[in-house]
Write a structure and sequence with these properties.
Number of strands of chain B: 0
Number of domains of chain A: 2
Oligomer: heterodimer
CATH topology of the largest domain in chain A: Rossmann fold
Distance between the termini of chain B: 34 Å
Structural class of chain B: mainly alpha
CATH architecture of chain B: Orthogonal Bundle
GO cellular component, one term (chain B): plasma membrane
Helix content of chain B: over 70%
Helix content of chain A: 10-25%
Order of helices and strands of chain A: EEEHEEEHHHEHEHEEHHEEEEEEEEEEE
Subcellular location (chain B): Cell inner membrane; Cell membrane
Strand content of chain A: 25-35%
CATH class of chain B: Mainly Alpha
Protein name (chain B): Spermidine/putrescine ABC transporter ATP-binding protein
Main location (chain B): membrane
InterPro entries (chain B): MetI-like, MetI-like_sf
Largest sheet of chain B: none
Number of helices of chain A: 8
Number of domains of chain B: 1
Largest interface: A-B, 26 and 17 residues
CATH superfamily of the largest domain in chain A: P-loop containing nucleotide triphosphate hydrolases
Radius of gyration of chain A: 25 Å
């Protein structure tokens, strides 16, 4: 059974729907990320779970109980903010102890629990300092400690790493994952950084315009996106809208403007509305021009239109009879603009989306 | 180029003389030993400083001014802090109108305000003189309190409030435990600026004072009408020192940028 459920939630701002009939279930102990471009409703969803926002419609259930009207301060959820939101007038110790004091914990218990949570985030010895004396990474660890010390039923992160520089971000996300695993706290994490979400989550929900396009484990999303939006978001730059589709025993045959393509069959791509082929720039192959080796499929004649240097590889824009394609390819002697080439679509690398 | 800079330096110097010259002259004349204000002084003495404390009406009116300013200040804070908070924290219809209303006592000429107070507080509703002064001074202090505290709240990050809230603090508890401590310096600055505004006020007080009750600046006016000895110069010097001290504290707390932002 799900730990908490969002049921048909609607949120509107200035008569504009941010979320409409939104549904989400999260199981106990899971680390779930909400991922999407800005304006997709991910932060709204998180703030709604926290209780900072009220929904116009729908229900929020926690352990089967209706939490829709429970105010923020009665929810016992930990929230970690993008800008840390530490109390500037309090020391690190008092920042972390804030929630415990409100819970009327005894002095000795406060000392014990603050010490142990500062141990977890590797900040022992910083008790007497003030937030402004700490670096960005340290402040965010204080913020995490402050949220953890109240033993929250749910831990919520709102883009916690986006103010940190790249190296620190990678260390911190490993840290967050470690802490979450150690304590087994159900966590909802919002980010617009795909790599970050994939690295630390059990499940990722890709959001677009107030709905969840796909909710799966990171590998499934990465390899088998369901929709064109998801595919595009995670780097499938090339799309072919097929006209005909035939399902065979082991493969699916598709065609567009007389060109035939074969895609390997899997449990997902046989769904009847999946007619858009998607492939990553890294997975397309450019060969020097010759006769089409396999006139039966997965090859297109093309011409190099634009070439850019990416460092590890070259990126080409290839012009073909059914549109332009983006290809990344390593090559010691690169193709030149204007070269006639063959573009190959490996059957096991193309996925079908809707 | 160099020529131009020298011209600018001379000009700046003249502006300073213009601004500070009178203050300097007053300071010097306050040490005059004779009984008539004159510059330069002929003999040196502290006797007019001693005289301030011997004249009874100065002592009583000083007390009145302090009481009115402090009490009005307290009420202005009680009204002004929530108002400044609401104006900074929330977006609502008519916010800009409300902002303008709160600032209006600064913009309306003091003499108009004073006359209005006389008309209503004194003639129509017959409030006692003390109460009238208290109400009038609260009203002139309120905009300063709201302005200074708003500017202090403008740098306050309201997600801090949400953080406290999510850790279990109630809305009111959050205000007292998190918001107030973080705008403490703004509140102290507001108290000092409002105090100076009220303590030095003449144009409102002149309408509100009456038989037996007078504020310090009004008493100074009365004194000058009858006596021409350097006591007033001595008082002026002391007021300058107090004001400079207050402004020094405000500068330390908030920076004087508050005055240039207006």
């Amino acid at each position: 059974m799900a730990l908490f459920t969002l049921e048909n939630i609607s949120v509107a701002y200035n008569k504009q729907n941010i979320l409409q009939d939104f549904n989400l279930e999260i199981e106990e102990g899971k680390f779930v990320s909400l991922l999407g471009p800005s304006g997709c409703g991910k932060t709204t969803t998180l703030r709604l779970i926290a209780g900072f926002l009220e929904s116009n419609n729908g229900k929020f259930l926690y352990k089967g109980k209706d939490y829709t009207k429970v105010p923020v301060n009665k929810r016992n959820f930990g929230f970690v903010f993008q800008n840390y939101a530490l109390f500037p007038h309090l020391t690190i110790f008092d920042n972390v102890a804030f929630g415990l004091r409100l819970r009327k914990a005894s002095k000795s218990e406060i000392e014990k629990r603050v010490a142990s949570v500062l141990e977890i985030v590797n900040l022992r010895g910083f008790e007497k300092r003030y937030p402004k004396e700490l670096s960005g990474g340290q402040r965010q660890r204080v913020a995490i400690a402050r949220a953890l010390v109240i033993e929250p039923d749910l831990l919520l992160f709102d883009e916690p790493l986006s103010n940190l520089d790249a190296n620190l971000r990678e260390n911190m996300r490993i840290e967050i994952r470690r802490i979450q695993q150690e304590l087994g706290i159900t966590t909802v994490y919002v980010s617009h950084d795909q790599e970050e979400c994939f690295a630390i989550s059990d499940q990722v929900a890709i959001m677009n315009k107030g709905i969840i396009e796909q909710l799966s484990d990171p590998a499934t999303i990465y390899n088998y996106p369901k929709t064109k939006f998801v595919a595009d978001f995670i780097g499938f730059k090339n799309f072919i809208e097929f006209e005909n589709r035939t399902i065979h025993e082991n493969e699916i045959e598709l065609s567009k403007s007389g060109f035939t393509f074969i895609v390997q069959k899997n449990q997902a791509n046989t769904e009847s509305d999946r007619k858009i082929g998607a492939i990553r720039p890294d997975n397309l192959v450019i060969r020097p021009f010759q006769e089409l080796v396999n006139p039966g499929g997965n090859e297109l004649p093309g011409k190099v239109k634009i070439r850019t240097f990416l460092g590890r590889s070259y990126q080409y824009i290839i012009e073909t009879p059914i549109g332009d394609f983006t290809v990344n390819q390593e090559m010691l002697v690169p193709y030149q603009v204007g070269d006639e080439i063959i573009l190959e679509f490996p059957a096991n690398k193309m996925v079908l989306v809707k | 180029m160099k020529q131009k800079n020298r011209g600018l330096a001379v000009f700046t110097f003249l502006v300073f003389v213009f601004l500070l010259g009178p203050l300097l002259i007053i300071s010097v004349t306050s040490f005059e030993g004779g009984s008539v204000l004159k510059f330069p002084i002929e003999t040196f003495s502290f006797k007019w400083y001693e005289n301030i404390f011997k004249v009874n009406m100065f002592l009583t009116s000083f007390k009145t001014s302090i009481i009115v300013s402090l009490a009005g200040n307290l009420l202005a804070l009680i009204l002004g802090i929530p108002a400044a908070y609401a104006l900074s924290r929330f977006d609502f219809k008519g916010k800009s109108v409300l902002n303008a209303v709160f600032i209006s006592p600064i913009l309306i000429p003091g003499i108009v305000l004073g006359f209005t107070f006389l008309r209503y507080i004194v003639t129509t509703y017959h409030f006692p003189i003390y109460t009238g002064l208290f109400i009038g001074h609260t009203i002139i202090m309120l905009p300063f309190v709201i302005r200074v505290i708003s500017s202090s709240l403008s740098t306050f990050d309201f997600s801090i409030e949400e953080a406290a809230h999510s850790l279990g603090a109630s809305k009111i508890g959050t205000f007292f435990q998190v918001v107030l401590p973080n705008i403490k310096s703004g509140i102290i600055a507001a108290v000092m600026i409002a105090f100076l505004e009220s303590f030095n006020n003449v144009d409102i007080s002149v309408f509100m004072t009456g038989p037996g009750v007078s504020t310090f600046p009004i008493q100074m006016l009365t004194y000058v009408e009858t006596y021409f000895d350097p006591t007033i110069a001595a008082i002026s010097v002391m007021l300058m020192i107090i004001t400079a001290f207050f402004m020094f504290i405000v500068e330390r707390l908030m920076g004087l940028s508050y005055f240039t932002k207006r």
